[in-house]
Structures are given as structure tokens and as C-alpha cells.
Amino acid sequence: MGLASFFESKGDKGIVIFAGKGGLGKTTCSAGLSHYMSQKRGRKVLCFSTDPQASLSDIFDRDIFGKGIVQIEPKLDVVEIDADKRVSDYQNEVKQKILTMYGLQELPPEIEEYIDSTSAEPAMYESATYDAMADLVATSHHDLYVFDMPPFGHGVRMIAMAEILSKWVGKITEAREKAQEYEAVAATLKGGKVSEDEVLRELNDIQSKITRFTDLMVDQKRTSFFMVLIPERMAILDTERALEMFDSLGLQMAGLIVNQIYPAEMRNAQGEAAAFLRNRARMQEKYLDEIKSKFGSKVVAMLPMYPKEPRGLDMISRVSEDLMHGPGL
Ligand SMILES: Nc1ncnc2c1ncn2[C@@H]1O[C@H](COP(=O)(O)OP(=O)(O)OP(=O)(O)O)[C@@H](O)[C@H]1O
Ligand SMILES: [Mg+2]
Whole-model pTM above 0.90? Predict the structure, then answer.
């Protein structure tokens, strides 16, 4: 059992995405897999996240947030994108372009307000994020890309993002139409004519970035989705929903990873003080049975609850062994 056999048959190049509800172990699994593939399989790995909590900095015990590609171990690079900054850089770029194109000293307040408000939209944030991912995959020349999904949005939803992103492009086009009203004024003032092509090129560019990203995500030869859950009710329900969503999109979930499993001995812990532990362990046992009957064949790895939070290379190395070669259900 473990993920090793999955990658033996699938090959260990491409993109791996760990998705799932917040706080169940996506970052832990991303670090574990990245470590294993780079140190034990000799692959050139890039582990990537946009989590504003800087969780990769935390688990690798290095300050890498917003610092570009940082080498952690031989063949293991890590990037933690500051997506907020990427969004604001992008907004400034758009503002500057409008100023230059229309020869204005300052932006009309409606346009400025509109551009600023886009940062509150998930589509803006996500398009900046996905754009960064697609850029890295296209240019960084690694064998394996491990995407550690941020806590919100939970990762599965993102494969259905194309539609939302297209809407966002629609809004830009709308803004473009608004801007055209100003264009007429500006062009008259300058006595010149503003070229349409620049703006249209921009829109086409955004559209092709969206397509580039979604093409990557649904390319099942290249991209494997794993979902991390724990033996608890809400996580099981969430996993069922995610599997249904995958089905409806005609995609396959590569596998499930059950995390934070208490040691089996705990189910029979003796003594008064042990009653709590015993109950917790038996509750997990019940949910493990449910996981087995509901998703049995999909479970590819099981991770124990560690005595301390996995952090630093020693612990990551232990996680990676359990993830790749651990026991089955
Ligand atoms: N098997 C485990 N044993 C002990 N602690 C664990 C285990 N797995 C995860 N943790 C701890 O639980 C917390 C959440 O794990 P992790 O950060 O990997 O989850 P996540 O899914 O990435 O969360 P988020 O959705 O916030 O990004 C972390 O503090 C982590 O160290
Ligand atoms: Mg995380």
C-alpha cells in the first residue's frame, strides 16, 4: 500500500494536487510527497502553494513566503506565492496601461473603483493564483509539480473554475466598454486616436491563460488529484460530495489519503484516565469502517496521528515513508 505503487504504475512526472477540507493534512502530504520524490526517486520537484498563512514556510521551517523559488534540499524547490501581492501588482499594471493608453493624468474614479473592487472577487484572486501555477509549469522545468491547495475553496472546486474565470473576463470587457466612453473624450483632447488592439490583446491573453490552466487541470495523463480526509463524519460527507463532483465532470480522483489515525492500541487503553482516548479511538474505528465500505478501493494511503505536528525535514521524512509505503485499510 501507500502512494509508491500508484506512482510506479502512473510514472512520477507531472502534476499532483492535494485537495480537501481545511486543516486535515494537505500541506503535510504535499511536503511528504515532495521530499520523497526528490530525495528517494531523484526527481526534480517543485512544491507550490498560495496559502496566505505561509504554511510551507512553516512545515519546511524556512522563510520562503513571497521569496520566489527556494531550494530546500537537492532537487527540491519550494515556492510560496504571495497571491495578494500578485493581484495588486496586476491591478497597478492595468491602471498604468489605461493611463498610458488614454494619455490621462489620473484615472476616472469609476474606473479606479472598479479595478480596486476586483481584488475582493475570488475569481481575481484565483486567476492570479492559477496563472502563477500555469506559468511555473510552463517555464520552470521540473519533473514533478506538487500543488498544495490553500485552505479556502478546498481545491476540488477549482477544476470547475473555468466558468467563473470566464465571467471575470466578461467583466473586464464590460470595464473596457465603460472605458471607451472616456476614450472618446481623451482622444478628442489629445487630437489622436487610441488603438483598440492593445485592449483586445489583453483580453485574449487572459482568456488563453484560463484555457492553459484548465487544460492542465483536466489532463488526466498529466495531473493526479488526491484528497485528504480524516476518520470523522464531516470529512466523509465532504469526500462523498467531492467524488460526486469529479464524476459529474467526467474526471477520476486518483486516490484518498486518510490522515490522523490513532494507534489501534488506544482502542483498548486501560484505566479511568484512558476512557477518553478509548472513546476517541473507537469513534475513529467506526468511521474507518465507514470509509472502507464507502470508498475502500480509493484509499491509497493512511497516516497515523503523530505525537507532534510534522515540521522540519526529519518529521517530513517520516511522513513521506508512511505516505509512500504505509499500511492499508
Ligand atoms: N498525521 C498528523 N499527525 C499530527 N499532526 C498532524 C497530522 N497531519 C496534520 N497535522 C497537523 O494538523 C495541522 C493541519 O495540517 P496541514 O497544515 O497539513 O493541513 P492543511 O489541509 O494543509 O490545512 P489548511 O487547509 O489550513 O491548509 C497542522 O498543524 C499539522 O501539523
Ligand atoms: Mg495547508
Answer: no
